[in-house]
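Just scan this pair:

***
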Amino acid sequence: MASSVFAGTLYMGGWPKDILVVDEGSRKVVDRIVTKTGIPRNLQLSADRKKLYVSTGDKDGIEVIDIATRKVISSFILDDGNKRVRFNGFAPDPKDEVLYTITTTAIKEIDRWVLEPPKFSVIDIKQQKIIKQVDYPKEDANAFARFSNLQVSPDGKFLYQFRDQIYIFDTATFKLVEKIDLAKPTYPGMMNVGFGGSLDSIEEPGFHTSIFNAQDPIVHRRIFGIVRFDLTKRTFDFKPVGPQTGGMMGLHITPDKTKGFTVASQGTQGNRRTEFWELDLTTGKLLKTQEFPGRSRFYFALSTDGKELYVYGAGYELDIYDAQTMQKKQTVDLNTDITTSMVALPGR
């Protein structure tokens, strides 16, 4: 297949220390960027969409990759002596000067490890270190606090954390400014709403579109729907779709913002059923489903033109499906064990 000048570029972290650069048109790995601090475990696009931020697992490192030159332009580790600074995910500020995250520090003593409570941490990219830490509110902390989705408002003043509720913190003080209780939304009959998935790389800046789960208070019927959150106005709207399934992956949106694709699964092990779901974002209707042979662990993504579905990760293969028919078109051997989700950048 010939490469197109309009084809996008896919970036994925892989074992042992690679960021793979895959051309969508030719389906080939056209470059490998070697990380300096260890195995990639998280990959995210910068606010200006000119850089990639990579977190690595060996010594809890951070690396910055320039997309134009495909070079690592900055790398450093957060671990210090007997301290391990664990974190999962981060959010860049609009100026790409700092990264916001929630860390849990493990201190190795003579006979044991001591785990500190979770803290908000501000990582200065230029100074290559944590420049500020504030304790996470004790009344809202739980085992899942540091695993939640983080995003910064377009003006850089507020940090959003998407959990069972939406927490909005002031980025200067980390004081809780507002808590949107999704267990008691303004829409009758809905409760226990929870967000899933993460912001897609082609999502409109300033908005967060994802899947939610809900349960009515009368017969406790669980359903799912589509939510779109305005990070500037602090408002959201959602469209119920149908009965909740066993598990759903993140929502990926087509470039025209009219459709979304996700993966739904039911059952476990040998009884597991995995399906592609196509959703109409304007009406909130489920348009199409199609079962496919899902792996025990995998990532799901959408091509930059919205015409193909990608299944990859926890292995060496990238399976490509036609988004319209939901049938497999091709399997590409990446010759690398994939360790992160994908960043897909449209061609110019």
